[in-house]
Amino acid sequence: MNADLTGSYHVPTQMAGLIDRVKDDLAAARKAGERERVGTLSLVLSELQKAAKDGNDDAVAVLRRERKRRQESARAFTDGGRPELAAAEEAEAVLIETYLPAELSDEQLREIGAAAVERSGATTPKDLGKVMPLAMAEVAGRADGRRVSQLVKEALSPR
Predict the structure, then answer these.
(1) Do 9 and 80 sit in the same domain of this protein?
(2) What's the Cα-to-Cα distance from 106 to each of 25, 136, 147, 153, 156, rounded to whole Å?
(3) Using one digit for the tens of pLDDT, what is the confidence trace for 7-36?
(4) What CATH code is carried by the domain that includes residue 143?
(5) Residue 159 binned pLDDT confidence (cut-offs 50, 70, 90)
(6) What share of the chain is helix, strand, coil (3-state, %, to 5)?
(7) 19, 50 in Cβ contact below 8 A?
(8) Per the structure, how many domains does the chain have?
């Protein structure tokens, strides 16, 4: 347990290591006067610490959620005719991505999807609900659910 990071609650090693890394990067950004980076890292650090306090030790899920929020905001700003705000949100999403593990390739996802289809016995796109839990368990946060769903649908579609 690291009291300066977490107070009196337990933080798993993965989460604590990521919190330490974000804190170090935040300090460096402050020293360099990078205001946008400081803002993003402060929010990410806050979300990671809140998740750790709540007993959520899945740092990757926290980071993916934060990235997704930025991407959705960027789309909304783009649709609303505010490209400068969209660009800022996109830059935050890119910064958050630097803390995420590498995404699985489409080929890897196709293999996982095909294996999940086979294990579930699914035969048509209507069976997507049987396949997705198996596929997502295998993906383990290394790809967006929409990508997985799209590739599983392809695997279930008649050729």
Answers:
(1) yes
(2) 31, 14, 8, 13, 16
(3) 444 445 678 889 999 999 999 999 999 999
(4) 1.10.10
(5) low
(6) 75, 0, 25
(7) no
(8) 2
pLDDT at residue number 46:
96
Q: For residues 89, 94, 96 and 100, what is the CA-based torsion angle, rounded to 10 degrees?
A: 150
Could you tell me which residues come within 8 angstroms of residue 157 by beta carbon, excluding any fewer than 6 positions away? 125
| CATH value at residue 37 | 1.10.1510
**Consecutive H or E run containing 25:** helix 13-32
Q: Which tens digit of pLDDT belongs to each residue from 96-125? A: 999 988 889 999 999 999 999 999 999 888
Produce one character per residue of 60-87: b if its CB has 16 or more CB atoms within 10 Å, e if not: bebbbebbebbbebbeebeeeeeeeebe
**Do you know the residue count of the chain?**
159
Torsion, Cα of 45, 51, 55, 58 (10° steps): -90
Tell me the residue range of the domain where 67 lies. Answer: 3-97
* Spatial CA neighbour of 144 closest among 48, 64, 60, 58: 64
Same domain, 78 and 149: no
68 pLDDT above the threshold of 80: yes
Is the pTM higher than 0.90?
Answer: no
